[in-house]
Amino acid sequence: MTAAFASENRAHQLESLRRRMAAISGKDFAQTAGLLPTGPARLPRGTVAVLSGARSLLLRMVATVTADGGNAAIVGQPDIGLLAAVEMGADLSRLAVIPDPGNDPVEVAAVLVDGMDLVVLGLGGRRVTRTRARAVVARAWHKGCTVLVTDGDWEGASTRLEARVCGYELSAGSRPGFGRISAVRLQISGCGRAIGRGRTG
User: What ranges in 35-121 are assigned the alpha helix state H?
Assistant: First the structure.
């Protein structure tokens, strides 16, 4: 495949995605104020947060948003455990998954912001500069979409969260060392404008 053909194909895919998001959005999420229902870590709509640590938290957030009737997208997370999200109550009909967004996952996320309540963006170790981030932050705020960044850094993010597994619960009737894990206990710590200077829960 030549570079020119790959570039043309990529442009076509992005344009197709833009049309689909325009059809989904139907309403301006900027009119929807308040907190996004994301379970244990409630974030204001239209903010960008960086999440590190246990993936259980982001799966819980995706599950809560879609179960509540919202739309979510997961970008750049090819090994995400959708079965775990379903077990948490996720509605897969309200979830878009783009495991390989190409060389510019930020551009793909910027398009998805138009029609989603939550976009989970895996950066694959990349660092997004404040200059590049500014346009996406403004778009997310205008559309009322919360962007949750993982596997990288986003300069100027209004909120930073860290989730750490601090225990497990086994299903009823289990004995020590045997049984099925029924719940994971997380310690969530964060700081930023959205949640105050620093908080652990």
Answer: 56-67, 82-87, 105-112
